[in-house]
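Design request, C-alpha cells follow.
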C-alpha cells in the first residue's frame, strides 16, 4: 500500500507539471466564451505572428547573416523572450478565468492501469529523491518500489560518454568510422554501465515482460532499449516503449486503434536536415494514400488541415528544444515554427505521429523536459503513439529504418513490435547502437 501511495504521489507531481505545459491548449477552443477571452486570444494570435518573425530572423542569422553584431543578436533574443513571457502570462490569465480543460491529467486509476498492462507488460516509472534515483515497478500484481539505484550525477556521466561518441560518429566521417569495431565495444561498455544502474536491480520484478519506461529528467535521453546486459541488448530480449506519465499512457491505451492506410508526410530541408526530401519521397509510395509536402508547401496550415484525417503524420524537419521554456520548443515548417503550444491546438486523428530528423542540439545532459514539450503537445492533440529520435542519425540509416518500420506497420504489426523488428534488422547491418537505436516509441505500444 505504501508503494502505491508513493507512486500516486509521484504521478500527481508529474501531472501538475503536465498542467503547466498543457496551458498551451487553451487556445485550442474554436471560439472564446466571452469578450475577455476574445481579447486575450487576439493578443495570443498577434504574439504568435511576432514570435514567428523573430524566430525566423534568429534562425537566418546562423546561415546568411553571421556577421551581425552581438548587440543586434542580443536584441533579437531579448525581444523574443519578452513576447514569450507575455504569451505565458496570457495563458495563465485564461487558465485562471475558469478553464476546465485539465481535469484529465489527474493521477491514473491504478486498477485500470494494471488491467491494461496485463500479465505481459511492466511499467517502470523513475523518480529521484535528494539526487538518488528510485523506480516504481507496476505490473498486474501490484506496485513495487526499488530504491538506491544510482545518483543522477552517475547516470549523467555515463550518458554523456555515450552521447559524446554519438556526436563524434554523426559529425565524423570516415576517420572515425574506420574504427567502428572498437567504437561499438566502447559504446556497449557505456550502455552496460547504464544497464547496471537502471535496469539490473529491477530484473527480478520484470521477468520476461514487455517494458514501458516513464523517464525522469535526464533519463529522457537514455535509450533503455539499447542498454546492454553483458550478453545482449535489452531490445533483443523484449519490446520497449516509453510514456511521459502513467496517466498519459492510460489515456493512450484506452483510445481505439485503427488500420493504417493514409499518411501526411511533411519535410523541410535546411543546412542541418539536407536529406529530408529524399526521406519523404522514399516513404510516400509505401502508403495506399499519401500526401507528401516539401519545403514551402509543408506549412502549418497544411498540417492543421491534414492532421484530423491522416492515419500517420510524419514530420521530417529541424527542431529546437528549449530547456528554459518547453512550451516554446519548436519544429521548423515551411512557413514558420510549430511550437509546442501550436501542437496542443491541433486536432490529430492519426494513430501515429513520427518526428524524424529532429536535431536536439543537446550534447550534454539536460533536464529532459524540453524534449517533452512537443511530445506532450501532440498527445494532448489526440495522438495515441509518437515515434521520435533522441539524436540525429545519418541519412541512409534513418531512411532504411523508417521504411522498414512503416512496412511492418502496414502489414498489421503493432507500433512497438514494428519498431523493434526494424531495429533488429538495422542492428545486423549497422551494429553500432548510434545507427539503430535513436528512435523510440512513446504512448500506445
Amino acid at each position: 500500500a505504501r508503494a502505491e501511495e508513493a507512486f500516486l504521489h509521484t504521478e500527481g507531481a508529474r501531472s501538475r507539471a503536465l498542467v503547466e505545459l498543457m496551458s498551451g491548449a487553451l487556445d485550442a477552443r474554436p471560439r472564446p466564451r466571452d469578450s475577455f477571452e476574445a481579447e486575450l486570444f487576439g493578443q495570443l494570435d498577434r504574439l504568435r505572428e511576432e514570435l514567428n518573425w523573430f524566430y525566423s530572423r534568429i534562425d537566418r542569422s546562423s546561415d546568411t547573416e553571421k556577421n551581425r553584431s552581438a548587440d543586434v543578436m542580443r536584441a533579437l533574443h531579448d525581444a523574443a523572450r519578452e513576447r514569450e513571457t507575455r504569451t505565458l502570462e496570457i495563458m495563465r490569465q485564461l487558465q485562471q478565468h475558469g478553464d476546465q480543460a485539465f481535469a484529465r491529467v489527474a493521477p491514473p486509476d491504478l486498477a485500470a492501469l494494471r488491467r491494461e498492462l496485463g500479465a505481459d507488460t511492466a511499467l517502470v516509472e523513475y523518480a529521484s529523491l535528494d539526487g538518488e534515483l528510485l523506480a516504481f515497478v507496476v505490473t498486474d500484481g501490484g506496485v513495487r518500489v526499488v530504491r538506491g539505484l544510482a545518483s543522477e550525477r552517475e547516470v549523467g556521466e555515463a550518458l554523456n560518454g555515450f552521447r559524446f561518441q554519438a556526436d563524434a560518429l554523426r559529425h565524423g566521417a570516415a576517420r572515425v568510422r574506420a574504427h567502428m569495431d572498437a567504437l561499438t565495444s566502447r559504446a556497449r561498455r557505456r550502455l552496460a554501465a547504464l544497464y547496471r544502474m537502471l535496469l539490473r536491480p529491477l530484473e527480478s520484478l520484470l521477468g520476461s515482460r514487455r517494458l514501458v519506461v516513464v523517464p525522469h529528467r535526464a533519463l529522457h535521453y537514455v535509450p533503455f532499449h539499447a542498454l546492454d546486459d553483458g550478453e545482449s541488448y535489452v531490445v533483443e530480449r523484449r519490446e520497449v516503449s516509453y510514456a511521459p506519465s502513467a496517466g498519459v499512457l492510460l489515456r493512450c491505451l484506452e483510445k481505439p486503434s485503427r488500420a493504417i492506410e493514409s499518411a501526411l508526410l511533411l519535410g523541410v530541408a535546411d543546412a542541418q536536415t539536407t536529406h529530408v526530401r529524399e526521406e519523404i519521397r522514399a516513404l510516400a509510395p509505401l502508403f495506399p494514400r499519401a500526401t507528401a509536402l516539401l519545403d514551402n508547401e509543408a506549412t502549418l496550415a497544411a498540417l492543421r488541415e491534414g492532421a484530423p484525417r491522416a492515419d500517420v503524420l510524419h514530420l521530417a524537419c529541424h527542431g529546437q528544444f528549449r530547456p528554459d521554456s518547453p512550451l516554446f520548443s519548436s519544429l521548423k515548417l515551411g512557413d514558420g515554427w510549430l511550437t509546442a503550444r501550436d501542437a496542443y491546438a491541433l486536432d490529430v486523428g492519426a494513430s501515429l505521429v513520427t518526428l524524424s530528423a529532429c536535431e536536439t542540439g543537446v550534447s550534454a545532459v539536460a533536464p529532459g523536459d524540453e524534449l517533452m514539450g512537443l511530445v506532450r503537445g501532440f498527445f494532448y492533440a489526440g495522438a495515441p503513439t509518437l515515434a521520435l529520435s533522441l539524436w540525429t542519425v545519418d541519412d541512409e540509416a534513418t531512411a532504411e529504418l523508417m521504411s522498414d518500420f512503416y512496412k511492418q506497420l502496414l502489414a498489421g504489426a503493432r507500433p512497438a513490435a514494428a519498431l523493434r523488428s526494424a531495429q533488429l534488422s538495422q542492428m545486423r547491418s549497422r551494429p553500432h547502437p548510434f545507427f539503430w537505436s535513436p528512435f523510440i516509441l512513446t504512448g500506445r505500444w
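Comment from the thread starter after seeing the answer: thanks! The chain has 17 helices and 14 strands.
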